[in-house]
Design a protein that fits this description.
This protein has 80 residues and is α+β, with helices and mostly antiparallel strands. It contains four helices and three strands, in the order βααββαα.
């Protein structure tokens, strides 16, 4: 769950505030020049993200790259 979006400058100036959001289970998206450059996520979400990106329950006739992209897109919001 996204808790906040902050510019790189806002993040630098208010790091403690954003770190508290992450400690409370929220995700913080960091932008620079209007584009997403990073996400600060809780540790348990990072483990889940890594696990999901490395493994999944797939049928044998599935395109692995496409299935991975679809699963990650469904689970994690993307901002372009």
């Amino acid at each position: 769950m996204v808790g906040a979006t902050a510019t790189a400058t806002e993040m630098q100036n208010n790091f403690g505030r954003y770190l508290t959001l992450v400690a409370d289970g929220k995700e913080v998206i960091v932008t620079k020049n209007g584009k997403e450059v990073a996400r600060l996520i809780p540790r348990n979400a990072a483990v889940s993200y890594l696990t999901d990106s490395l493994a999944g329950i797939l049928k044998r006739d599935v395109d692995l790259k496409q299935a991975k992209e679809e699963r990650l897109k469904e689970k994690y919001e993307t901002f372009d």
